Amino acid sequence: MDVKEETHYLGHVETAKPDAVDVDAALDRAITRKFDKHLVPWLFGLWLLAFIDRSNIGNARIDGLIPDLNLVGNQFNVALTVFYVPYILVDVPSNWALKYVGAGYYLPGLMVCWGIVGTCMGLTKSYGQVAGLIACRLLLGLFEGGLLGGMVLYLSMFYRRHQLLSRMGLFYCAAPLSGAFGGLLATGLAQINHGGYNSWPWIFIVEGLITVCFGFVTIFFLPHTPATSSFLTEEERMGALRRMKLDAHGATAATDVAQEEFSWKWVRMALLNVNTIMMSLIFFAIITPIYSFSLFLPTIISALGYTRVTAQLFTVPPNMAGFFAVLIGTFASDRFRARGPVILIGCTVAIAGYVMLLAASRPSVQYGGTFLIAAGVFPSSPAVMGWLTNNLAPHYVRATGVGFELAIANCAAFIATFTYLPAAAPHYVTGHCINIGFLALAIVLTIITLAYINIENRKRARGERNDRLTQGDEGVLGYRHPEFRYSY
Fold first, then answer.
1. Which pLDDT score, from 0 to 100, does residue 19 have?
2. How far apart are CA 462 and CA 308, in angstroms?
3. Is 258 exposed, middle or buried (0-12, 13-18, 19+ CB in 10 A)?
């Protein structure tokens, strides 16, 4: 979507002031097309392989991982959980490091590291060895932890606020697609028996090697910032910087994100923002069903009475539903400049899916419920991330806030990985009810956040925040600038 207007919100009503004088419309479209061509495909690949490498342990589980490693009780769930300890701790500092190191090196570098670790998982021989399953899962979480927040932050350096979510959708749709593609790939790789490694180890080994190769290639193509994008002409580079300055609505004095410097003031501003707190809680509530769905979908389908191979293949259609729902939801969100409503619709649809799993007795109807779950939860995740990214500025405020949001949200993994326990099979009533409860919580929190944003934007529109302009340098007000409007 090409955004040609500088938007001011009056509650849920928008008035527009054209900025065509500042950025020529044809130039703006040319810049956007080049960013779409040179950035999004690489980010899509990064996220596709990240999600495959993170969740392929679910495929390995039904291909013999548990008996081969002699896992008992909740040991498999522990292996899932330890991934999220470093994954959570690294979110905020990783976002701070992104610009310092250079995003074009940093993001692919993370990928190479976790690809090596993923390959090593296929060489695991026991539960507790140093080079075993737990150690690999810890390292995998360490290297994957900075990726999602880093990609969202990276895109926010190149795209205007209401171009952002549709581009996030173009890479985030790889998450449900990874479930579809990963299921097909795992089915084939699990047939390999060679060199003393039979079935499931080859899922990790081959997929890990693919990740390493892709990471090395990506290093040569991703630019660090708009100003360092070699595929832009000089006029396009100047236009790219100018349109980002206009879209900041006074939130930053810098003309180039590379000029912004770290300060603990930005950290405090990020953590004390109502949007950061509320959207972190919303994401926490949404991520619980997303993680449990991704990790346990093969198990849930197996419990409906399908064989191992059939269960792997049957994970594909629900994930494809999620794939298309992400694309539709994120593009509609940018088209109508609305984030919260997408979350409300998505959570409602997902709840309906879980009700089908609980209430229906026919496997075909229960299987249909997994389509609604995927179509509901997957679009809600990029919506809440894009929502907070839109509402924080400048760069280091956004970096801190998005990192904090992901850190809080990913704490839900400690719940999600223990949602579907073997003792609850085959109906998993407790797990389904937990996910319904969190989705309902997300709906309530979203409604409260929308009400707050409406009130705050009306105050700014009436001039009730203009006194901030007299309190010092307005270039350091960030999102508190009276001209800055929160997205809803």
1. 36
2. 62
3. middle
The residue whose two tokens read 């940018």 is: 334
Q: How far apart are CA 373 and CA 317, in angstroms?
A: 12
At 112-135, the pLDDT tens digits run: 999 999 998 888 765 454 347 888
SS3 state of residue 393: coil
Instruction: Answer whether 174's CB lies under 8 Å from 131's CB.
Output: no
Which residues, 6+ apart, have CB-to-CB distance to 439 below 8 Å? 285, 286, 289, 347, 350, 351, 354, 376, 377
Which residues make beta-bridge pairs with 193? 198
Check: CB of residue 21 under 8 Å from CB of residue 150.
Answer: no
- Output the CA angle 85-91-97, nearest 5 degrees: 135
For the stretch 432-476, pLDDT in tens is 999 999 999 999 999 999 999 999 999 999 999 999 988 877 778
Q: How far apart are the first and last CA of the chain?
A: 18
Q: Using CA atoms, how far apart are residues 159 and 240, in angstroms rounded to an integer?
A: 9
Tokens (6 digits) for 351? 């709840």
Q: Please calculate the CA angle 483-484-487 and round it to the nearest 5 degrees.
A: 140
Amino acid 382: pLDDT: 95
* C-alpha distances in Å from residue 348, one per residue of 9, 81, 374, 431: 27, 27, 12, 17
Q: What does each C-alpha distance from 442 to 339, 375, 419, 487 come to in angstroms? A: 13, 16, 18, 18
- Tokens in use for 26? 């044809």
Residue 296 pLDDT:
74
- Between CA 309 and CA 314 the distance in angstroms is 9
Residue 322 to residues 41, 65, 143, 286, 330: CA-CA distances in angstroms? 19, 27, 26, 14, 12
In the chain, which stretches have pLDDT less than 50? 1-21, 127, 129-131
* pLDDT for the residue 6: 36
Which residue is associated with the tokens 């649809």? 349
Do 413 and 210 meet the contact criterion of CB atoms below 8 Å apart?
Answer: no
* Spatial contact of 90 and 145, defined as CB atoms under 8 Å apart: yes
Q: How much is the pLDDT for 295? A: 67
The residue ranges of DSSP E strands in 253-336, in sequence order, are none
- Are 247 and 23 a contacting pair, CB within 8 Å? no
Contacts of 277 (CB under 8 A, 6+ apart): none
Closest CA to 340 of 436, 450, 453, 454: 450
- Name the residue among 377, 25, 354 with its Cα closest to residue 175: 377
